[in-house]
Design a protein that fits this description.
Length: about 180
């Protein structure tokens, strides 16, 4: 009569599986973190570009100026241009908020070139003065930088960030809560 062998795994086999799993997780986690950061960057860039389009369309539809600006609280424009805390779209005549975005991920950085701190759209959909640029990136990674340029016509478009804008974005310090 053959010997009956118990079913299951030995401690050695279980430890070997756990060791291999730990090594694979150690290799995969940094890559997963990078992929998540790039996804959040893409989603935030899409949201900002959509907000610019909505502000322009609202100005044309309601026939009065609108503003898209940085906001700390989601109700009023901030005097600074710290877009990492979020932004709002606001009608200028009744001063009501029609768009609000909370602060994006802490790993992301958003910088504007010096000058005006908000995008203002006139009733004809234009954004007066010169082209305005805002750059988004993963902190510390200038290669991820993407810029959104708002032309005088009011149309927003994406482009690869200039080396100067990418460096300024990547070097921005983490926001303070």
């Amino acid at each position: 009569m053959p010997l009956h062998r118990p079913h299951g795994f030995t401690w050695t086999e279980l430890l070997a599986v756990l060791a291999v799993t730990g090594i694979l997780a150690g290799v995969a986690l940094p890559a997963l973190g990078e992929a998540l950061a790039r996804h959040r960057l893409r989603a935030t860039t899409d949201a900002l570009e959509d907000a610019l389009g909505q502000a322009r369309a609202t100005a044309v539809r309601r026939n009065h100026p609108t503003v898209l600006c940085a906001s700390r609280d989601g109700r009023a424009c901030s005097p600074s241009s710290d877009w990492t805390r979020g932004w709002i779209g606001r009608d200028e005549v009744p001063r009501t908020v029609f768009e609000s975005m909370e602060a994006p991920d802490d790993k992301l950085s958003i910088v504007r070139r010096p000058g005006r701190h908000a995008f203002t759209f006139d009733p004809d959909g234009t954004c007066p003065a010169s082209n305005q640029t805002i750059t988004l990136c993963v902190r510390g990674r200038p290669a991820t930088a993407v810029s959104i340029v708002v032309a005088n016509s009011g149309r927003a478009r994406r482009k690869t960030a200039t080396p100067e804008d990418a460096a300024a974005c990547a070097s921005q310090l983490s926001r303070k809560r």
